[in-house]
Amino acid sequence: MITYEEAHTITKQYKPEKDIEFIPFMDSLARVLAEDIKSDIDMPPFNKTAVDGYACRRVDLGRELIINEVVPAGQVASGPVTEGRCVKIMTGAAMPEGTDWVFMVEDAEEQDGRVRFTGKAGKDNIAKLGEDIRVGDTVLKAGKIIVPQDIAVMATVGAVMVAVKQRPVVGVISTGNELVEPRHKPGPAQIRNSNACQLIAQVTRAGGKAVYYGIAPDDEEPTLNMLSKAIKECDIVLLTGGVSMGDYDEVPAVMKKAGVQILFDRIAVQPGKPTTFGVHDEALIFGLPGNPVSSFIQFEMLVRPMIMRAMGADTGCEFRKHKLAGNFTRRRTRRLAWVPVLINDDETVVPVEYHGSAHINALPGAYGVMKVPIGVGEIKKGEIVDVRQI
What we know:
The protein is of the alpha+beta class. The protein has helices at residues 4-12, 148-157, 194-206, 220-233, 251-257, 292-310, and strands spanning 20-24, 37-38, 48-49, 53-56, 65-71, 85-89, 101-104, 108-111, 114-117, 126-127, 138-140, 161-165, 169-175, 179-180, 191-192, 209-216, 236-240, 261-264, 269-270, 276-279, 284-288, 319-323, 328-329, 336-343, 349-351, 368-372, 378-379, 384-389. The longest helix is centred in the C-terminal third of the chain and has 19 residues, at 292-310. The mean pLDDT is 93.
């Protein structure tokens, strides 16, 4: 049995090698940039007003001004602004020639085509040409996971086709005679197959492409056939169940028969002790525990970072520091524990009601999982803990 840190070090050495592809920027959400994006324009592309107000010469602020015209965004003034005059201007409109100041509508008294500034002269309320972005500036760096605000930046600089790494293909296989698909009502001694649905969703959230192969019975030959097919078609294969020590837990043996070199088959963690990882010339294979909390957490800790690395992400799945809201104790300390926690308004965390690794209903309301290191049996209120947000 190895530690989580050792398991993380081993799996970190491996990732599927994926090629670059160019896709429309509107389809790039949650993908990872493979090349820097540079701007083809200055932003703003002209001096523009940052407020609704009156564009004038600063030296004229203390006098009543004649309003030449009203200029909305998208239009330009008909001519330059001269002494004693101004233009009523809307947010985003280009500054008229001859002006160097904008005072807000809220600081003005307008009547009969004239206006007087009633406020105190502070900032000029002008967004200057190129103050945000210059032509050739790198606006988004390779390795960044694309989020909605990045889409706006791409649109701004005309990056309508973007380079991203291809998504790794992740096969999902559930094992166990007790499983039925969610559309079926379980019979005696049966349960619905929640693991596969959960893992498919996790793969999708991580940016991978999930392929579901179905439920393998507790029988070596059909499981081997299913696994062999998945290895040929996928970059990563996930099996859930069948990795413990029971009479019908045959996944490790099947992995070996499929030509997989197993690098570890036990981790000193709770939940998730029987997590197994192996390598094949064509794919990387994880045997995850059958209990849904175990499979969820081990995916987040080991599989999700691998998917992100395959896509070229420059960030992993980091821990966040939080204070514990109350005292925490546990009896057994020989394994590292992942404890689901809620987050309070003051950013402190508190363990959820949690009945063990089969208690999947403990996770939907959880903020993350708290790391309790090996040998630690008590954490006191106010102490700092590491939390992986989920």
